[in-house]
Amino acid sequence: DCCPLRHGYQTRKMKPFFSLLPFSLLLFLFSFHGAMGNNLIQETCKIFAQNDPNVNFNFCTTSLQAAPASHCATLGGLGMISIRLVRYNLTDTRCYIKQLLKNKKIDPYVKACLSDCFDLYSDAIPSIKQSMKHYHSRRYVDANIEISSVMDAATTCEDGFKERKGVVSPLMKRDNDAFQLSAMALSIMHMIQTESH
User: Fold this and answer.
1) Alpha helices for 4-70 (secondary structure H)
2) Structure confidence by residue, pLDDT tens digits, 55-64
3) Among candidate residues 186, 144, 149, 165, the one with its CA nearest the CA of residue 52
4) Does some domain include residue 102?
5) How many domains does the chain have?
6) What is the residue range of 174's domain?
7) How many CB atoms lie within 10 A of CB 110?
8) Rounded to two decimals, what is the model's pTM?
C-alpha cells in the first residue's frame, strides 16, 4: 500500500509553590509535563535542533503539527506519532520506488540502486512496526535498535547513488526525510528515558 503522510490550546493551573521555583525550572516543567499541543512541539523540536545536527527545526515542527492528534499529545504521544510518520514515509517510499522501477528507460545503474533501495525499505518496514510494539511496551532500548536500523537503511540507499559520479538520487528527499524522522523518534525516546531517571 501507499500511505500518504497525514494544531493547540493549553490550560495550566499554577500551584502556589511554583512561584518559588526558578524560571528555567518552571519552563522545563511546563514544557515536558504540563504543556500540550503546538507549544510542546515547538519546545521539543527546538531542543532536538539544538542538540542533534540531523534534525531541522522547521522540518520537525511541520511534520509533527501535520499529524492527527498532535495538538493534544504528550511527549510520549509525540514519540508514537514520530514513529508512525517514519512508517508512513517508508511505506510510501517503497511504493514510489516500485513505480520508478517500472520505467523501462531508466539508467541501468540507477535501476540497480533503486532495486537495492527497494529491498532496504522492504526490510525497514517490519523493523519500524516492531519498534512501535517496543515503544508501546516502554522497551526503549529495543525500539532504539530497530529505528537505528531504519536510519542505516536510508543512508545505505542514498550512498548507493553517490558511488558513481554524476548520478543524482531520485530518492534524496525521501531518504533524508526517513533519516530525520527517525532521528526525531530517537531524540524523543532519549528525552523520555532521561526524564524517567
Assistant:
1) 23-29, 37-51, 57-66
2) 999 999 999 9
3) 186
4) yes
5) 1
6) 47-196
7) 19
8) 0.79
